[in-house]
Amino acid sequence: MKLVLVSNYLSHYSRTISEAFIRIYGGDFRFIAQTPFNQKRISSGFHDMNSLPFVLRAYESPEAMSEADRMIDEADCVIIAGLPVSVVSRRLKGGKITFMQSERFFKGPLWKDAVRFVKYSRYSGGRSQARSPQSKFYLLCAGAFANWDYHTCGLFDGKAYRWGYFTELKRHDIFPEKERASLIWTGRFMEEKHPELAVIVAKNLREMGLDFRMRMIGAGAIHGKISEMVSSLELSDKVELMGSLPTAQVRAEMEKSEIFLFTSDRWEGWGVVLNEAMNSGCACVAGGKIGSVPYLVKDGVNGLVFRDMDADDLTEKVAGLLRQPGRISLLGRNAYETVAGEWSPKTAAERFVRLSEALDRTAGPVSLWEDGPGSIAPVI
């Protein structure tokens, strides 16, 4: 079976699943990049991954674009990470399996959601096929709320499967040694990621008389605002703003931190930082409206879920962990096992092969697993 994955460019998390596919398909897998690698990432120290040998750079020439079209038309199975175009109809007329990989698109504010509703409910090149139970056009939900958005538009009913982003997996023969009562927050400093919630938690924990240290890593538009907040609350002895760090150093900081705070709102379609924190053995406390959270986190088993944007609930859960060090360790180890097992790139790729082969034999729906990548996605 020949598999093609089409996206804008090869990112670090599309690389991991692509390499897992290569271990299964070998030369029968290709990644088609539609745009040059993100220049901001290159300026931040990332390697241009579009240069890897399994990538066809369709944007480079008309000949490359024609070759990409040929590969897409001839492949047994195609994953399109983006809005479907006319190529979908061409494939489906031939009865060939096609998946669309997508995050949620209703992210607010309301007027933008209304525009997106019209756009997604009336797009060309696959609308009728997305509605048809008999077609071989399926949705890979890169986040737990994607299926609700498409369901609202009347698309992919009964044809949606759990999926996600899969970061590089670090195996730990010896579990990382953690610094006692250490908290970490990392991400871009922007309104939608709500770093201020982490600062509020720090204030509350200090008022409770709990011992802790918090690291905050990243940069962005509201970094200055957060810095002023830390200063005005006299938290400089508790909260360290570390600025932007190389990816490897961020992972090193995670590996020595006990508790990871994930505070984004519903704007966060997935949030690969959660994969990385779980892989680092952190006890993760995450907001319930983040796309990856309902898929990756089982509340009380391998992490904790707090009510969306509720600083008091977040504080209560973090304080409870600080008072129970043994529970921190248990949640962290279970988190590691989740992303090293069921949600690893290897497992996802192997499941995708079984799922696509099963769907090739029937119009679906196909239920092979109760949970994890490739299982039927609920409407939530």
Protein model, in words:
The protein is elongated. Strands 3-2-1-4-5-6-7 form a 7-stranded parallel beta sheet, with helices on both faces. A 6-stranded parallel beta sheet has the order 10-9-8-11-12-13, sandwiched between helices. With 380 residues, it is α/β, with parallel strands linked by helices. It has 2 domains: 3-167 and 344-361, Rossmann fold; 182-340, Rossmann fold. Strand 2, helix 2 (39-43) and strand 3 (55-57) form a beta-alpha-beta unit. The chain is built from 15 helices and 13 strands. 40% of the residues lie in helices and 15% in strands. The longest helix is centred in the last third of the chain and has 17 residues, at 345-361.
Q: Return the CATH topology of the largest domain.
A: Rossmann fold
Provide the β-strand percentage band. Answer: 15-25%
Spell the H/E element sequence.
Answer: EHEHEHEHEHHEHEEHEHEHEHEHEHHH
**Which architecture of the largest domain per CATH?**
3-Layer(aba) Sandwich
Percent helix, as a range, is: 40-55%
CATH class of the largest domain: Alpha Beta
Inertia-based shape: elongated
Uncertain runs are: none
If helices are DSSP runs of H or I spanning 4 or more residues, what is the number of helices?
Answer: 15
How many DSSP-defined strands? 13
End-to-end separation in angstroms reads 33 Å
> Number of folding domains?
2
The structural class is alpha/beta
Radius of gyration: 21 Å
